[in-house]
From TrEMBL:
SUPFAM superfamilies: Ribonuclease H-like. InterPro entries: Ribonucl_H, RNaseH-like_sf, RNaseH_sf. CDD domains: DEDDh. It comes from the Bacteria. It is an enzyme of class 3 (hydrolase). GO terms for molecular function: exonuclease activity; nucleic acid binding. Its EC number is 3.1.11.-. Keywords: Hydrolase. This is Exodeoxyribonuclease 10. GO terms for biological process: DNA metabolic process. Residues 2-175 form the Exonuclease domain.
Length: 244
């Protein structure tokens, strides 16, 4: 079983694309991982010319310019490369897979999200970005070609780092378990916002705080709201799914 770890650099964020804005890919990177042994293969990366100007705020992240991509691959050709040599039963993977899947569905192949899996497996991690996990797990010592991991925020290096995070997960969990974790909603262990409550256990939060998080007009992400709803339900003695 092959797991192809993807990373994209783009002209804007996925949520802007979801709102109807035209957003393009400017670079793809992928690194294959053996789903049984966790062995990491060499990385491939390609610049992509989506025909969409790269704004300064995007360049500030990945430092890719319009001039750099003018001879890049057309998007359709880049997508074909991502599908090349993918066999039945092979998987795709990305860190925050929802982002990559906004641009590339991956056909019939299922996806592993290493960020979601990390939240389930490593509750004490200080952060769940791939670079933070890289150093927290000290995965550089596992890298056969450490220079490939640099610079950050480029598609090839980021896919290589994520591939090693995945490999570390495979050392203790079969890919089928990682697929299951990917599709299991995350409950946060600790509050991750606010000067007063940051770092405290959600289990210790009082009813007033939980109701405040869930009150209309509060713009918390769904994961945070789900966690607050779970603990409010627990305090109310409600039974059933904790994700209701």
């Amino acid at each position: 079983m092959k797991i192809r770890v993807l990373d994209f650099e783009t002209t804007d964020q996925a949520d802007e694309k979801a709102k109807g804005k035209t957003v393009g890919i400017v670079e793809i990177g992928f690194t294959d991982v053996d789903g049984i042994t966790g062995e990491v293969s060499p990385t491939e990366s390609y610049l992509v010319n989506s025909g969409i100007p790269i704004p300064p705020q995007a360049r500030a992240v990945h430092h890719i310019s319009d001039d750099m991509v003018k001879d890049g691959l057309p998007p359709d050709e880049a997508y074909r490369l991502l599908m090349a040599h993918m066999e039945p039963g092979d998987l795709f993977c990305a860190h925050n897979a929802a982002f990559e899947r906004t641009f590339f569905a991956g056909g019939v192949h299922a996806w592993i999200c290493t960020m979601i899996c990390a939240k389930h497996l490593w509750e004490e991690a200080p952060s769940y970005s791939n670079q933070a996990l890289r150093y927290w797990l000290d995965i550089d010592r596992d890298m056969q070609w450490p220079t490939i991991a640099m610079p950050p925020h480029r598609a090839g290096p980021d896919s290589y780092v994520t591939a090693h995070i995945l490999s570390r997960m495979i050392s203790t969990h079969h890919p089928s378990s990682l697929l299951q974790l990917t599709n299991t909603p995350v409950l946060q262990k600790r509050v991750m916002f606010g000067e007063k409550h940051r770092g405290q256990l959600w289990a210790d939060m009082d009813r007033g705080f939980l109701e405040w998080v869930l009150s209309p007009g509060k713009n918390f992400d769904e994961e945070t709201r789900r966690t607050a709803r779970h603990w409010l339900n627990k305090q109310s003695g409600l039974s059933g799914t904790p994700f209701a």
